Amino acid sequence: MQKLKKYAATKAGRDAIISFGIVIIAFIVMQALLAADMVSSLLEGLLVPICAYVVMAVSLNLTVGILGELSLGHAGFMSVGAFSGIVAATCLSGTGAPEPVQLAVSIVIGGICAAIAGVIIGVPVLRLKGDYLAIVTLAFGEIIKNIVNVLYVGLDSSGLHFSLLEQRFELAEDGEMIINGAMGVSGVSRLSTFVSGFVLVLITLLLILNLINSRAGRAVMAVRDNKIAADSIGISTTRYKLMAFVISAAFAGMAGTLYGLNYTTTTANKFDFNTSILILVFVVLGGLGNIWGSVIAATLLTVLPEMLREVGDFRMLIYAILLIAMMLFNNSPLKQRILEKRGMKQMEKLEKAEQSGKEGA
Amino acid sequence: MAMLEVTSLGISFGGLRAVDELSMKIEKGGLVGLIGPNGAGKTTVFNMLTGVYRPTDGGIRLDGQNLIGKKPHEICRLGVARTFQNIRLFGGLTVLDNVKTGLHNEITYSLAESLFHLGGYRKKERQMDEKAMELLEVFGLGNVAGYQASNLPYGKQRKLEIARALATDPKLLLLDEPAAGMNPNETGELMETIELVRERFGVTVLLIEHDMKLVSGICEYLYVLNFGRLLAEGTPAEVLKNPEVVTAYLGE
Amino acid sequence: MSFLNHLINGISLGSIYAIIALGYTMVYGIAKMLNFAHGDVIMVGGYMCFCATTYLGWPAPAGILLAVVVCTVLGVVIERLAYKPLRMAPALAVLITAIGVSYFLQNAALLIWGSSTKSFTSVVGGSPIPLFGGQLTIAPVTIVTVVTCIIIMVVLTLFTNKSKAGTAMRAVSEDKGAAQLMGINVNTTISLTFAIGSGLAAIAGVLLCSAYPTLMPTTGSMPGIKAFTAAVFGGIGSIPGAFIGGILLGVIEIFAGAYISTQLQNAIVFAVLIIVLLVKPDGLLGKRVSEKV
Fold first, then answer.
1. b/e code A19-52 from CB counts within 10 Å (16+ = b)
2. Residues of B in contact with C293 (CB under 8 A)
């Protein structure tokens, strides 16, 4: 107990307790509601996507909040993860392995593929800064979407077949098409479940929070706060930038697999620029660098448009107004004043402590 | 052999010759000042020593090892640490974490250990905490270890920057106007701390200052820079008597 | 001859991108923000002209004028309500707000005009002009587009370099604080920039819809993103850069579609952008800004 109290007193400890607390409580409540059959089918259908979006938001927060680089193409990694995961799952479906194992292996493969994409993209573009980096990530997101749209993948007894632009391979009789160009994938067996989504969220939170609170995480944040100073104390800035970017991509890939295996059909256009922006909105509204903020924002903002369905056509308009209003409030003089006061209090406390220290001496 | 050997160092920005034909020798354990009026090129020298700028010509050797063409983080690993004229802290991190970041290459563990908090994680983190607290205590920052660095008052930020640089366990510490913006009391206190640091950590110090009186108190040897060129060098007493130096400082 | 034809189409499309990119670049230069809603202002311009000519039966010039006036006012209002309060806020906050404004405009258009595609009547009449004995034809709208683009670019360059208001703009883009101390009204200057940028967006919208006569609430988003790409391509903040970037992007896009694959058209455009930025990290005509240590 004593240990827990001490842990909760540190910022890292507080963040971890809040993050896991929210997720676990939400999971238990949802399970109870599901058992009591009190969940609308609409919300039930959203459970896995919410988990996927939470993982997306947390992973993007690593790039935007912790590393401090704006990425507008995060959905591209989700796409890579989704399609490679689906291919993996199709290959595994004949093995007779239990479904959760198939899912887990697919998610790992999705994560690895997205990580590879992350390296390919990250090595050249992380040299760029600010808005330029943002536009290049946007461009890569669009490129990935376009390529998946002309990608044909088939599986038969002789293995996997790939081609671009048009189907250039013949499948044996027992074969099946997995990715069919712009038509995307169809007939996917839905392996993803709420429980698996919940587990993925927990793993993501654990690893990312661990990372932030470690030697590597501090190095990444040092690069964010002051690149030149980070260099001056012996941190290889390119290395840590790439590391954070690739880890972020890997988790986005895993989220993509989870998401892709939740639907029978998926097309590349599901992971477009608008999806990237959606995730970015979760991160910014949840607070840059604030992991549990991302969790809450992703959940609420995924549910919110559905709740607004009652107002019909006005729902996206209201969503837009809420978004603007929240941004304006977050940066309003009112909120600034509250924050300033907090900083002042810390200073005052410090001065008082020093004074009393001097008197004691 | 001198610890730091700078030979005919020069750099041009476009047509501007910012530093020209600068040669310096600093012995191990020395406390040396690099002084000169504003715009003399002092910070540019630091930037070349730490790999931020690549010199156009000349050589830099640390314990016989060539530093030219090395990246800043590589030079740091070879034993050169610095502070900045315009303070560069990791504002979003706590005071303690700023120093722990400085220990990045001193106490290491792998990425896997970072992600899973397994293996040496706990032990190494504890070592880091202890070492960092020790450094903070030297600068009287122990009681603010948990504060966000950007919330510290100015004078303490300067001290924290020195503590962070020392955490990298440098052979050579470069201090860029460490007393800038401090009142005479604080300055005196800081100069004492610098002397203390040199003895306790066995580090060689090169510091930039444009207030000559200030450095003549603690520095054993001074290099005077004016318009990018070495104007004079010697012990503070010698330099202060040099008529050229007096002219450069006071004008005609 | 088909090569020439593609080139002409490319320059025509590129001219539209260039006009949008000029607006983007000006706003970026002054406000240092990516105005993601810029593309949607184009769409509003298209609808305004469409309503005036189709529903109200106004002549085309009146329709264009209405589009320009409405978009100019819209641009200024957006700046005052959504961006001005965030002037001290981090860039990312402004970006998200701009995205919010973009969603707002798209969904407002969806509510007003519905999701069905409107077919836009070109504001430039007349039949295609045959060249080389009919081997090559040029649509009048193409000529108008290219000429308009060149005029705008020349006028803007003269305006920013010679006029008092233009000088004020350049001063504000260099240093807001110093400009204010010199007696420049920063708020007015920023409003003026948004007004000009949005007015240009309206013209671009009308030309875009005349060349590609379909109009729906999302009409502006992709051209908006591409024009932004063009602005970065040419070096964001630079007026000639936006012009060159826009034209090049249009030509590359049309050629990629014609000779490689229409499905990979956008991918190729973006790939070229990435390559350019990797070779010249500040765009073709951008200024190199390095941090002082």
1. bbebbeebbeebeeeeeeeebeeebeebbbbbbb
2. 43, 47, 52, 84
Does A359 fall in a domain? Answer: no
Half-sphere exposure of A310 (CA within 13 A, CB side): 3
Contact C34 A134 (CB under 8 A): yes
Q: Å from B86 to nearest chain C CA?
A: 8
* Residue A356 falls inside a structural domain: no
CB C12 within 8 A of CB C142: yes
Alpha helix (H) residue ranges in chain C: 2-31, 38-50, 60-78, 91-113, 140-162, 164-174, 176-181, 186-211, 221-234, 239-255, 265-279
Domain containing residue A195: 2-330
**Tokens for C16?**
């539209």
Q: Does C293 touch chain B (CB under 8 A)?
A: yes
Minimal Cβ distance to A233: which of B102, B109, B124: B102
Backbone angles phi, psi at B25, to 5 degrees: -135, 125
C128, amino acid identity: P
The predicted complex's ipTM stands at 0.90
Q: In whole angstroms, give the CA distance from residue C156 to residue C166.
A: 9
Q: Do B94 and A11 touch (CB under 8 A)?
A: yes
In angstroms, the CA A26 to CA A295 distance is 11
B72 contact residues in A (CB cutoff 8 A): 228, 231-232
CATH number of the domain within which A228 lies? 1.10.3470
Residue A360 confidence class, pLDDT cut points 50, 70, 90: very low
Residue of B47, B44, B48 whose CA lies nearest to B58: B48
Q: Within a domain: residue A45?
A: yes
Per-residue pLDDT in tens (0 to 9) along chain C, 293 residues: 688 888 988 999 999 999 999 988 888 888 888 888 999 999 999 999 999 988 888 888 888 999 999 999 999 999 999 888 888 888 778 888 898 899 899 999 988 988 888 888 777 777 777 777 777 778 888 888 899 999 999 999 999 888 888 889 888 888 888 888 888 888 999 999 999 999 999 999 999 888 888 888 888 888 888 888 888 888 888 888 899 999 999 999 999 988 888 888 888 988 888 888 888 877 787 776 666 66
Nearest CA in chain C to A312: C111
**What are the angstrom distances between the C-alpha of B215 and each of A236, B37, B240, C289?**
34, 14, 11, 35
Neighbouring C-beta atoms of residue C187, cutoff 10 Å = 14
Taking each helix axis from N to C end, the angle separating A237-260 and A99-125, rounded to the nearest 10 degrees, works out to 140
A108 inside domain: yes
Residue B71 pLDDT class (50, 70, 90 cuts):
very high
pLDDT at B205 exceeding the cut of 50 = yes
Residue A259: partners with Cβ closer than 8 Å, 6 or more residues away: A48, A49, A52, A78, A82, A192
pTM of the model: 0.88
The predicted pLDDT at position B236 comes to: 87
Find, in chain A, the residue whose alpha carbon is nearest to that of B51.
Answer: A232
Q: Give strand pairing partners of B11.
A: B19
Specify the pLDDT at position B161.
Answer: 94
* H or E element at residue A4: helix A2-9
Domain count, chain A: 1
Q: Which residues of A touch B (CB under 8 A)?
A: 11, 207, 210-211, 214-219, 221-222, 224-226, 228-237, 243, 289, 343, 346-347, 350, 353-354, 357
The backbone torsions φ and ψ at residue B61, rounded to the nearest 5 degrees and listed phi first, read -130, 135
Q: Is B175's Cβ below 8 Å from some Cβ in A?
A: no
User: Between chain B and chain C, how many beta carbons pairs sit less than 8 Å apart?
Assistant: 4
Give alpha helix (H) positions in chain B.
42-49, 72-77, 95-102, 111-116, 121-138, 154-167, 184-201, 212-218, 236-241, 243-250
Q: Say which residue the tokens 């993925």 belong to.
A: A200
Residues of A within 8 A of B93 (CB-CB) are 218, 221-222, 225
